[in-house]
Amino acid sequence: MKETSKRHLHNGKTIGFVPTMGALHEGHLSLIKRAKSENDIVVASIFINPTQFAPNEDFEKYPRDMEGDMEKLKREGVDILFMPDTKSMYSDGFSTYVTVKDLSDKLCGAFRPGHFTGVATVVCKLFNIVKPVAAYFGQKDFQQAAIIKRMVENLNMDVDLIICPTLREPDGLAMSSRNVYLSHEERRAAAVIYKTLLSASKMTKSGESNPVDVRKQMHDMLKAEPLISEIQYAGVYDTNTLDELNEFKRQNLLAVAVKIGSTRLIDNMIVEF
Ligand code: AMP
Fold first, then answer.
1. Which pLDDT band holds residue 253 (cuts at 50, 70, 90)?
2. Domains of the chain, residue spans
């Protein structure tokens, strides 16, 4: 991969990069379409990164669909699929990690210790290997995008980050590789996440409430769905610090993480004034 990238760079080509963990859906493909429209060469990677999963998480059963993925990538006209194996990414003696302090402990980080160190480390490695001029991430994983942005700034990396909108199912559920874990009933119940965000965004825009009221309304709506087994967080956050807000700012992040049965789902929306 390094040699291939060097050759393209030497020939003056721009490389756009879309890192993924596979089990591709339209959300992933939207990033690829955007990358295709803005670069000479598009590289997609599929790597289920073990260092971002805790021992009790779903690394082993994470959905895999290599044949389907390859067909989708071909259809989208991806130039290069980079699919490293775990041993070549984490060889014996691997001991260097990237931690974006502070941002990594908030929101999802509070429930997934070490997760964002795994993410920042693998993205740093992938950037060094692929050498893209631009990399494409989904807003669905807002905290991940914020952490990678901070890493790129702090470590003076030459990569433009393009954050793309969240693609949704017809009932509003954010597309996710993990949605296949949901039973029929759970899948139906999962629509409450988007409904909660929509209603919170209306309330925010109305100008007649504060973030504390919005948070309460979000929790009330989520609690009313019996198949939600845990609300990890739901509320209004600062888009830069990811801290919970007591007063609205110009930009406000409405974010939710819940478990439906044993499946963890996240989603968010930004409201700007
Ligand atoms: P993943 O395979 O889950 O690691 O996701 C790879 C990339 O696709 C990340 O940048 C995600 O934020 C992005 N992504 C995942 N789901 C969606 C979605 N529904 N809409 C847009 N982008 C998404």
1. very high
2. 2-164, 177-272
User: What secondary structure does DSSP assign to 167-223, as a single string?
Assistant: PB-TTSPBP-GGGGGS-HHHHHHTHHHHHHHHHHHHHHHHTS--HHHHHHHHHHHHH
For domain 2-164, give its CATH number from 3.40.640.10, 3.40.50.300, 3.40.50.620, 1.10.10.10: 3.40.50.620
Distance from Cα 191 to the centre of ligand 1, integer Å: 18
Residue 214 phi/psi, 5° resolution?
Answer: -65, -45
pLDDT in tens, 86-98: 999 999 999 999 9
Q: Which among 69, 141, 148, 149 is the best mutation to test ligand 1's pocket, defined by most ligand atoms within 8 Å of the CB?
A: 141
Q: Give me the CATH topology for the region 177-272.
A: Pantoate--beta-alanine Ligase; Chain: A,domain 2 (3.30.1300)
Q: Is 138 in the pocket of ligand 1 (CB under 6 A)?
A: yes
Model confidence over 201-223: pLDDT tens digits?
A: 999 999 889 999 999 999 999 99
Active site residues: 28
User: pTM above 0.85?
Assistant: yes
Tell me which residue has its CA closest to atom 11 in ligand 1.
138
**Residue 26 DSSP symbol:** H
